[in-house]
Write a structure and sequence with these properties.
By secondary structure, the chain is mostly beta strands. It folds into 2 domains: 4-142 and 256-292, no CATH class; 146-254 and 298-320. It has 4 helices and 18 strands. The chain has helices spanning 60-63, 224-233, 257-265, 305-313; strands spanning 4-12, 17-25, 31-38, 44-54, 76-81, 87-89, 91-94, 108-113, 121-127, 134-140, 146-149, 165-171, 178-191, 197-210, 216-222, 241-255, 273-275, 287-299. A hairpin with a 5-residue loop joins β3 and β4 (44-54). The radius of gyration is 23 Å and the shape is elongated.
Length: 324
């Protein structure tokens, strides 16, 4: 009789979380789904492990609501630095999860704290002492990029002017294969009636691609596109709500080859995906992804005066009540 393993894999490719549900035809045996993206700059690292679950009688959507079908009772999860031989034993913890098809009453991950350096090779091992099943995966940690524009010294003066190209430039790390760049506007909203003030950031997923043979990336785009994007995403509010631009922020993500291959399998999508076939995995004796990524942040503390003026006077922005 045909049996299907249904498994969920939560992928945060760079900065977007999504749930990917795959149906994999296979034998009736214990199956581990292991997921970890390790950033050398993070102080806390996570490994998520789910069950592949099998049933001939119960609908997959019903199984997905049962936490016992998603998580193992007892696991030994370790991460080994293959360069130094140091082994880290991970602690199980519960984290919050959004409501959805899959059970959200409990959501377990395994974590440990350590600061790594670029080029470190790690071995992730998940062992079930009750069944004897072990799944493993390896990754090399990607290093930092070199930022050209914006840079730590220019982020406060970074400018977007209509009919003038702004420039984004960086050189990726030698082990990075894929990148994604985000630009954000930090702004305050003030209710002039109650004087209540809130701060928010509107992110623009500006560019995404692969490095290819050259790791240097240069992108030039008309500054008007920045304001067109803001206008497409900001909510128009009443005249009592005043806004003020505070700063420009920038994030650059890099991913290793494993992440690049995985994203190709899922057609570069950042929304939920359903596949009716066995997909890419680099986990031995299991499914999932063990990979490396980096996130580089530039947090501005001020905003270019020309940008402040455009927020107030640009034809597409006037209805959003930006002021000094």
């Amino acid at each position: 009789m045909r049996k299907t393993i249904h498994w969920v894999f939560a992928l945060s490719l760079f900065f977007t979380a999504c749930d990917n549900t795959l149906d994999i035809t296979g034998p009736a045996k214990e199956t581990m789904i292991v997921y970890s993206l390790i950033d050398k700059a993070d102080s806390i690292h996570y490994v998520r492990v789910n069950k592949g679950f099998i049933s001939e009688d119960v609908a997959p959507i019903e199984l997905a609501k049962d936490a016992d079908q998603l998580f193992f009772d007892s696991l030994d999860v370790t991460v080994k630095n293959l360069g130094t031989g140091e082994v880290f034993s991970l602690a199980k913890q519960s984290i919050e999860k959004n409501e959805g098809v899959f059970n959200s009453a409990v959501n377990y991950v395994y974590s440990f704290q350590h600061k790594f350096t670029e080029g470190t090779q790690l071995l992730v091992t998940v062992h079930n002492p009750l069944s004897g099943v072990t799944a493993t995966g390896r990754t090399f940690l990607v290093g930092d990029p070199t930022l050209t524009s914006p840079s730590p010294t220019t982020i406060n003066t970074f400018n977007f002017e209509p009919d003038i190209n702004f420039f984004i430039g960086f050189t990726g790390h030698r082990d990075a294969v894929e990148y994604e760049a985000k630009i954000g506007l930090v702004y305050d909203e003030t209710d002039i009636n109650s004087q209540a003030e809130t701060r928010d950031t509107l992110w623009w997923n500006f560019a995404r691609g692969k490095f290819g043979d050259l790791t240097r990336v240069s992108i030039r785009t008309d500054g008007q596109i920045f304001y067109d994007y803001l206008a497409s995403r900001l909510e128009q509010k009443g005249s009592n709500i005043k806004r003020k631009g505070i700063a420009i922020v920038y994030e650059l993500w890099q991913g290793d080859e494993e992440m690049s291959i995985y994203s190709e399998v899922f057609d570069n999508s950042s929304i939920g995906i359903v596949q009716k076939k066995q997909d890419y995995t680099n986990v031995e004796n299991g499914y999932g992804l063990i990979g490396s990524r980096t996130r580089t942040n530039l947090y501005g503390t001020a905003i270019n005066g020309k940008v402040q003026t455009q927020l107030q006077t640009n034809p597409v922005m006037t209805r959003f009540n930006f002021a000094d």
